[in-house]
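seq/struct pair 1
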Amino acid sequence: MAHYTYKCVPVPTIVNTGQVGKDSHSAAVMTYEQIINKAASDGWELVQVDTITSVQNPGCLGGLFGKKSEEANFKLLIFKKHN
């Protein structure tokens, strides 16, 4: 029976590359590619990409002053490595 170790790497859905427009998409794809290739060179295999939403509720004072919950969307890259 095969045994694996798993690793999850959160990546913001919008990668801040400092570029705007069409070139920003290419830069974002290249950023993901670099993360995946770095993991692969360390023996990790990409098995899944998921989107997760993290919700942060305001603290006590923020709630008193009407601050709303904030959501952040992330891509979660899931890798596995054979033990």
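seq/struct pair 2
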Amino acid sequence: MRKKLKTTPEERAAYRMPPPNEDAAAYNWELKSLRKPDPKSLDKRDPDAGESIFRAPQETPKTMARYGHDAQFICPKYLQIMLDSSSAVRQAAANATKARYSKAAMAELQATIMRVFEQEILPDIKKNVAAIGPTLAQFYAARLAHIKKFGAE
């Protein structure tokens, strides 16, 4: 359960996220804590309403049984490290603040985040996966050899 911040209207920051993420500060501003609004939630301010924004939908109960319900399409901590280290993202966020969080400034911040993702984060992911490619190949070959010898578990 999230720790609620007790603030008065005059103590609140100039910009806050909408529910259920309006108390992101209570989670030390970690991306992994962000949730999608749950349309079924009766209490729109319920801090635990909705699933993680990073949840990767799984199509079959079989995959859920094997891998669990918490599959994520990207590691939020890695994404946050990469975005936090981007001078372009920091500058776009500063520009949004100067523009008092206007729709145009927020759209530019989003566009900057997407550009950094395409130009910096995806290449880093590809580089890291290429470096572990041999181990991944060994894993899949060994797993199939094990299944052929001992059967599926």
